[in-house]
């Protein structure tokens, strides 16, 4: 009845409600839009009020019209979205930018954050679309791309301009470069003597478009022809919409056939003389905005200037033109240019270009007259200076990379190239220096070096850098006859937090621990991260070799690590196990010291964790035994050495066996029967707990089905699930498959989970618990009362049973405090309509108190210890147990 009630109340909520709880309201506050789709049917379930603002349709129509969401997408973008919806998987997130068309015909560009989630209770897959209007950004990006396109063309053309031997090669080169930088076509036209324009500089594939194309200078007097307009007005003429011009002119038809949709015509004039036009075509409509036109105007002007230079016959005019070109190149150069006197020793600066001012922060007035090495500041101990000084002395070219300093004192790296300038008498009169600021490249090199030697998450030295530092520390200790301590730190229970709360929480925890470790040691010490949850400390001259003092140091470090920390509102105390190896007693090389520290660390873990151990030779044998036991455990699965024992669970009111808890044992061929406390921890660390857990679940279900076939119809089997098993992505499917394979009714299986594993990541684990519950399986919280359950969350869990931990049951008949705690747990469970079972019942007095408090069931040695399946049969013969 309780379950039916819960299901009935839950059904009133929308099936996709879990997609709205986290951020539905926030989405409406920042201009974004939210809509949710049922993936299998491509049906819109929900749309926020922002739909009308962005799409121009009411949210009611958006939900009611099942095809409207797709019709809003521009036809060219629909397939991209359809493909994504076909391939998206549960849990996957994607970002997609699409163009939409509003009812008024205006386009907008929307960036969607798309995430697919599953409702495990219904089997529905839901896709959440969070859309942001990026139309403005899209237009800005287009404008920026166009400006960059023009800037690339201008930059690339400078080399052509500087090397063209004649008009033909100049114009051909300019057109080739402009076409190569992102425009569909560029051609130049020079005005002939008959007033027509003849194309020059076209590419071979567009030859037929421009063949025999001649436009009379006076044509198109009404301004309809862009070339004639540009020539007449001496201003750039733009034709941005070929498709909208319905005139059947040959040039327009040809342009449309070749995919040209926009055109810019730039007049090339030298003072009062019109030399020709420069034509640039683009494949997109409305391709040329004012900024791009202005940039290309400067290019056309630059080309016109060079054309005039080529036409000047006089040597003086040619020389002046060449000088202007060089001056322009220097002024526009991205590199800093310095001209200095060749007179030693100061080599006084006589000229700097604007790039110098921009790079150094010094104005030309501040730099001119200074010693040419003033940018060095006091940093004169640089290898590159030797080459520069030699070049100055020998009057030759020189090149070096130097550290220079700006006016504000900040460092920049200067790739410097100097060259001598000779006069008519061949004597060196000046030096020209070209400076390139290569600081970003140097910073990138530094970043690469750091990435190769430091852990990306914590910034600590990684294994590679640790080995280098440890080697240096050993050499230092050997020379000075000092001791050296190598401490290996492994966090206890980190895998539990990482697996249950996710890698983001685990990464946050590791950063906190790394900060604590660094703050607890000296600057001369090294803290490194090996990977995972392992850290290494290298402590030279630690306590001068005094073991007692060193232990105090290590205890202080441990105390810093185990301070409480808060993750997602919950407080945790994370222990750590530390192993210490000392140079030279425990090894004289990095590998040996690291290996021995590792052995000592595992001894600390074997002793219960949250402690430290100094290495001793005896530990080596223990470590070998541990490795051997791990190997044997792997083999135990293959050799069928694992077995299950079962402990009855008894109903206190009727004295009957109502369930069994399955408990694993290892039947070791040499060591005999091994209890789980000796190997489950190792199985958790190595990941063997996953195949072992599946084996336990399948074996227990098979045995329970066998007992049911013998007449024990409603007998329930309880199986413990570890925290690591609980977060498997295919857990629900695995349980369902085993139930189907064994034939055990789902209600006869009870999954036991520890309180701490359930509470680690509540929202995520709620989904898992509901998915398991949907199979019909019972859920139990084990060791209840030992963790940190919140009653607010507990009532949300779809659990059936609370299991009172044996630590409360032990003294229940002796101490009133324990009895009160147990009574409270029983009352809490009953108020939540849960069954309550007490474990660890060993005496009649304990049983009597529990029965008096209304406990439903109990298990423990008072009734029976865990027994093999064949010995359980005898207990069934006497179903009526005296309680």
What does this protein look like?
It catalyses: 3',3'-c-di-GMP + H2O = 5'-phosphoguanylyl(3'->5')guanosine + H(+). Residues 482-617 form the GGDEF domain. Residues 94-146, 396-450 form the PAC domain. It is a single chain. The chain is 44% helix and 24% strand. The protein is an alpha+beta fold. It folds into five domains: 10-133, Beta-Lactamase; 140-323, GAF domain (Beta-Lactamase), CATH 3.30.450.40; 333-443, Beta-Lactamase, CATH 3.30.450; 454-615, Alpha-Beta Plaits (2-Layer Sandwich); 644-877, Alpha-Beta Barrel (TIM Barrel). α7 (135-163) runs parallel beside α12, α19 (494-501) packs antiparallel against α20 (503-519) and α25 packs parallel to α27 (731-742).
Largest sheet: 8 strands, mixed, barrel
Inertia-based shape: flat
**What separation lies between the terminal Cα atoms?**
29 Å
Number of helices: 34
Write the layout of secondary structure elements.
Layout lengths: L1 H9 L13 H6 L3 E6 L4 E5 L2 H6 L3 H6 L3 H4 L3 H13 L5 E9 L5 E13 L4 E10 L1 H29 L3 H14 L4 E7 L4 E5 L6 H4 L4 E2 L9 H8 L3 E3 L10 H8 L4 E9 L2 E10 L7 H22 L3 H18 L3 E6 L7 E4 L1 H7 L3 H4 L15 H12 L3 E8 L5 E12 L5 E10 L1 H15 L9 H18 L3 E8 L2 H8 L1 H17 L6 E6 L2 E7 L6 H15 L3 E3 L2 E3 L3 E8 L6 H17 L5 E3 L2 H22 L3 E10 L5 E12 L3 E3 L5 H7 L2 H21 L6 E6 L1 H4 L4 H12 L6 E6 H5 L2 H13 L3 E7 L6 H4 L6 E4 L1 H4 L6 H16 L3 E5 L4 H9 L4 E3 L7 E2 H9 L6
Helix pairs in contact: 7-8, 7-12, 8-12, 12-13, 19-20, 22-23, 25-27
